[in-house]
Amino acid sequence: MEIRTLLIDDEDLARQEMRYLLAAFPDVRVLDEATNAADALAKINRYRPDLIFLDINMPGRSGFELLSDLDESPQVVFVTAYDEYAVRAFETNALDYLLKPVRPERLEKTIATVRANLTRPAEPEAAAGSSNYQLRPDSLVFIKDGEKCYFVRLSDIFLFESEDNYVRVYFGSEKPMHRKSLNLLLEKLPPDLFFRANRSQIINLSYITGIEPFFNGALRVTLRGGMRVEISVRRAGEFRERLSL
Predict the structure, then answer these.
(1) What is the CATH number of the domain that holds 83?
(2) Boundary residue ending a domain (117, 149, 170)
(3) CA distances (Å), 145 to each of 150, 170, 205, 206, in order?
(4) Under a CB-based contact definition with an 8 Å cutoff, are residues 27 and 53 in contact?
């Protein structure tokens, strides 16, 4: 399988060196390069790469800030000269972390990890680069909440909850804030997996363990872990239809 790759680094020599090192791996195809976060954002949306090699400390916006702008994250390998970022990078569950100058034997281990972790899903229905495509259950979502950063697979999120202009995202025992609005998220989420339960909450249908009648024709569902969410009267009919109740 070809691994479609993008190099993101503000240093010309660093990108040239990475191209040279990656030439040893025939299944890795470098699609393009980007020199800053804005350039990288446009090219990620254009190419939808499988993998990015990402410098953290760039002029303007950092690599972490770039990731927070993406609806869906590719696999990420951080490449930086600053080892102070190592712990933070791995807190995000990035695929790997390479310290400059990159050693060939270390890169070989990274590519082996990429091959083991990367399974390319079907292409979205919308054309590449379109803002109207929908995320897939196995899409990776990057969330930056203060100093904490997370990569989380969409199917592992069981609840989105609106709080002012932000959304609290529930997965595992975590519930960080995401800076996108609930309405914007709903446009991207796969409708066969997620359902708008009420004005402020979207639930993952696969996490439902129980359904019971609630006040005035509303319903109440119990999610894995015990959390309860009300399906509003306005949404209850569509919910019953979706679940063939």
Answers:
(1) 3.40.50.2300
(2) 117
(3) 8, 13, 25, 26
(4) no
pTM: 0.82
187 Cβ contact list (under 8 Å, min separation 6): 132, 134
Domain that holds residue 158: 140-242
Please write the tens of the pLDDT for every residue from 89-133: 656 667 788 989 999 999 999 999 999 887 655 454 444 444 456
Considering the domain architecture, whether residues 161 and 97 belong to the same structural domain is answered as no
Contact criterion met (CB below 8 Å) for 66 and 108: no
Query: Cα 193–196–198 angle (5° rounding)?
Result: 150
Is 206 a domain residue? yes
Numbers of helices and strands, H then E, in the chain? 7, 15
Q: Residue 131 falls within a domain, yes or no? A: no
